[in-house]
Write a structure and sequence with these properties.
The strands form two sheets. This protein has a six-stranded parallel β-sheet with strand order 1-7-8-4-3-2, sandwiched between helices. It has a two-stranded antiparallel ribbon with strand order 5-6. It is globular, with a radius of gyration of 22 Å. The longest helix is centred in the first third of the chain and has 26 residues. By secondary structure, the protein is an alpha/beta fold. It has 13 helices and eight strands. It folds into two domains: 316 residues, Thiamin diphosphate (ThDP)-binding fold, Pyr/PP domains (Rossmann fold, 3-Layer(aba) Sandwich), CATH 3.40.50; 28 residues. Helix 1 packs parallel to helix 12 and helix 6 runs parallel beside helix 7.
Length: 383
C-alpha cells in the first residue's frame, strides 16, 4: 500500500540545490532520517506492510552478521574483513530490486547483496578464513565472486551485459539485466571508465551502482572529484542519478527502475548511492587517523535502520514485539554463523586442480598426479 506525504526531500551535503519545485535535482529520497515518507516525481513504489517489515528484517540481520564477521577477524579467526556498516540500505535496497534472472557483480563488500541473493553467509567467511577454494557458483546464484582488484568487475559485468544483448535476452519484462557494484574510489580507475564506454556504445543492459561512502580508503571524496559522481554518466552518453543511499525505499525504487529500463533495451544507468562507511575500510584500517568523530556522529543520525524503524512505528506497521523478535533472531543467526565458521574444515589441496577447466585436461591431470604423489610422500613422516 502507499502512504504518501507532501513533504519533500532535502539535499545531503554536497547534493544539488533545490530546483524550487519542492524536490531536488537528481537526488532521490523517499524516507527522511526521521522516518517520514517523502514524494518524488519520478520514483514511487507501493510497498506492502509485509514488504516493509521484510526490509527491516533484512537490514538488521545483515548488520548483525557483518558485526559477527568483524568480531571474528578481531579475534584472529578471519584474515581480514571489509565491513558494510552504514551501507546496509544501499545494498539491501538494490539487492531486493534485482529480479531472479538478473546478474550481479560485486566488490569485496557486498555482503548485503549476497544475503539478498540467497547465498549462505558462511561462503564469504570461508574465503576470508582461507579454507575455501573459490566460494559459490556465480552462474547458479546470479552473483559473481568477490573481486578484490578495484573496479575490475565493471569490465566483467559489461562483457556479460553485452552477451545478453547478443543473445537477444532483453527487450521484454522477462529480459535480463546486470548490476555492477563499485565504490567512489573506483571511479578513478581506468577499468571503470572503459566499462562506461563499452556499455554506452553497445547499449548494454547494465546498471552501474556506485556506493559513494565518502572515502576511497583514506582519501576523502573532495580529493577525488570536482563534480557529483552521478554527473559523470552524461559524458559517456547515458543517464545518472543520485539516491539517498541510507534510504532503503529510495534505493530499491531507483535500482528497480534502472534495471527495468536496461532490460527493455534502453541502455545503462549510473546510480550514485550517497551513503557513508561507518566503520573502517577493512579491519586493517584505522579511520580515526583521517576523519573526525563529529563527522561520524553526523552520519549516525542518518542511520538506515533507525529511519525505517521510525516509519514502522509511526505508521503502526510494527510493534515492540516485532522489533524484539527480529533482533533476537538476528542474534541467533549470528551465533550460529560463528559456530559454523569455527568448525569449517581445512580444504583438500588437490581440489585446486578441479577448478581450472570444466572437464579437465591432460596437462592439468598430469600436474594433479604429480602433486598427489608429492603430498603422499609426506605420509608417516615425523614433524
Amino acid at each position: 500500500m502507499t502512504r504518501a506525504s507532501s513533504k519533500r526531500a532535502a539535499p545531503p551535503s554536497g547534493a544539488p540545490e533545490s530546483t524550487g519545485t519542492g524536490t531536488t535535482a537528481d537526488f532521490v529520497q523517499l524516507l527522511t532520517p526521521d522516518g517520514e515518507r517523502v514524494s518524488h516525481p519520478d520514483y514511487s513504489v507501493d510497498f506492502s506492510d509485509d514488504e516493509l517489515r521484510g526490509l527491516y528484517r533484512d537490514l538488521v540481520t545483515v548488520r548483525k552478521l557483518d558485526a559477527e564477521a568483524t568480531a571474528l577477524q578481531r579475534q584472529g579467526e578471519l584474515g581480514i574483513w571489509a565491513s558494510l556498516l552504514g551501507q546496509e540500505a544501499a545494498q539491501v535496497g538494490s539487492g531486493r530490486a534485482l529480479r531472479t534472472q538478473d546478474m550481479a557483480f560485486p566488490t569485496y563488500r557486498e555482503h548485503g547483496v549476497l544475503y539478498c541473493r540467497g547465498i549462505d553467509p558462511i561462503m564469504p567467511l570461508g574465503l576470508f578464513r582461507g579454507v575455501d577454494q573459490g566460494g559459490w557458483d556465480p552462474i547458479a546464484n546470479k552473483f559473481g565472486i568477490y573481486t578484490i582488484v578495484i573496479g575490475a568487475q565493471t569490465l566483467h559485468a559489461t562483457g556479460y551485459a553485452m552477451g545478453i544483448a547478443m543473445d537477444g535476452k532483453m527487450g521484454t519484462d522477462d529480459g535480463e539485466a546486470v548490476i555492477a557494484y563499485f565504490g567512489d574510489g573506483a571511479t578513478s580507475q581506468g577499468d571503470v571508465n572503459e566499462a562506461f564506454i563499452f556499455a554506452s556504445v553497445y547499449n548494454s543492459p547494465i546498471v552501474f551502482f556506485c556506493q559513494n561512502n565518502q572515502y576511497a580508503i583514506s582519501e576523502p571524496l573532495q580529493r577525488q572529484t570536482k563534480v557529483p559522481l552521478y554527473q559523470r554518466a552524461s559524458g559517456f552518453g547515458f543517464p545518472g542519478v543520485r539516491v539517498d543511499g541510507n534510504d532503503v525505499l529510495a534505493t530499491y525504487a531507483v535500482t528497480r527502475a534502472a534495471l527495468d529500463n536496461a532490460r527493455h533495451g534502453n541502455g545503462p544507468t549510473l546510480i550514485e548511492a550517497y551513503t557513508y562507511r561507518m566503520g573502517a575500510h577493512t579491519t586493517s584500517d584505522d579511520p580515526t587517523r583521517y576523519r573526525v568523530a563529529s563527522e561520524v556522529e553526523e552520519w549516525q543520525a542518518k542511520d538506515p535502520i533507525s529511519r525505517i524503524r521510525k516509519l514502522l512505528e509511526r505508521e503502526g506497521i510494527a510493534d515492540e514485539a516485532f522489533f524484539t523478535e527480529v533482533d533476537a533472531q538476528a542474534r541467533v543467526e549470528a551465533v550460529a554463523l560463528r559456530e559454523r565458521v569455527l568448525s569449517l574444515p581445512e580444504p583438500d589441496p588437490s581440489e585446486m586442480f578441479q577448478h581450472v577447466y570444466p572437464h579437465g585436461s591432460p596437462e592439468v591431470d598430469e600436474q594433479a598426479a604429480k602433486f598427489a604423489a608429492y603430498h603422499a610422500s609426506f605420509e608417516g613422516a615425523q614433524h
